Amino acid sequence: MKTIALLYERELDYGGVESHILTLLRRADARSFKFVILAPVSEQFRSKAQMLGAKVIPLLHWSAFQPFFIYKLAKILRLEAVDLAHIHSSIAAIPGRLAALILGLPVIVTVHLPVWLYHGNRQTLKPRLGRRVYISLDKLLNHRATSRLVFVSERFRDQSVAARISPAEASVVIPNGIDLDRFRRGVNRDELRSSYNLSPDTKIVTFIGRLDEEKGLDLLLEAAARLQLVLNGFEVWLVGDGPLKTQLETQSHRLGLEDRVKFWGYQEQIERFLFASDVLALPSHYEAMPVVLLEALAAGTPSVVTQVGDNDLVIENGEQGLVIPPNNVNALVSALHLILTSAAMQRQMSEAAVLRSKDYDDIHMVRQYEALYTELLIKTRRSTEGYNNAIPPE
Fold it and tell me: What domains sit in the chain, N to C, each tagged with a CATH number?
């Protein structure tokens, strides 16, 4: 059995990365691989990970530029007898790869967001300089200290290779996957909607995810304010939590949407919200491949998405939903209005979405990662024996 270390510098709580990691824990062959997580974690995430057999080491205060932290991380990797480091962010990937390099470990970096987006988009001097430093260092380590770069987005993989940030021969695409079984259970939609006290004629526009700047939720509320001028009987559901919650609540009140917008907070059974909804709205400024979009496919919920990341590769415009330009409120209003007022379109898109979802089975995703683990571990065993002696034993 081989030990895989999963590294991440932000608190693991809920979201796309968390879903990805939990899928690895749930679906990977327990006879071949065991996992240790090195990251800050919420109690909720720790409980889920431990129930799936992972060891959790709540490593706080990550630093990309402190030699002592890199030494500390390498020491933990050695004490845990780690065979391969699997890193899930461009920040953790700096000390993580340096620590793995000391020990001679193979390294996989999953690129959930490319480095040029991971560090924000503010244009003042300090953020711009910071991005340049991180991008340059990431490029160096991609070429010199990474066994494989796994992109969840085909488009971002191609852009990264074209910009020579990533080496083509080490850069592969493994799309995100979801547990399709969760969406194959029979559900009585009328009873489900009744449990939310919805009338049969009420239309539901739902967003599910982190309430953060990148998601374009201010545009969704602005669209709702305009939509109510031409359409009655609809609600907007925001399912999730995040730093913009208070700001969005204030905007909702300012636009007179108090009775139309519901903030549900974090929810475990998001499939219930998707089954009850008429359309998923994802007006993001940037994405790679959002997991919730795949979940909407599986639930048969039509989507309105912006043309960012791989959104328009997942959603074929006019088939499983509608694709609109980013940062365009008028296009968002028109797309939502079109779907919400056409029962025939909703039905056709719903059927097409369920068929499309079969391409994103999480079992297939994890088997590809297992094949990568095995390939790299075999190569490492052939090229070196044991750990590097740079980190003394306890």
Answer: 2-177+361-383 (3.40.50.2000), 180-359 (3.40.50.2000)
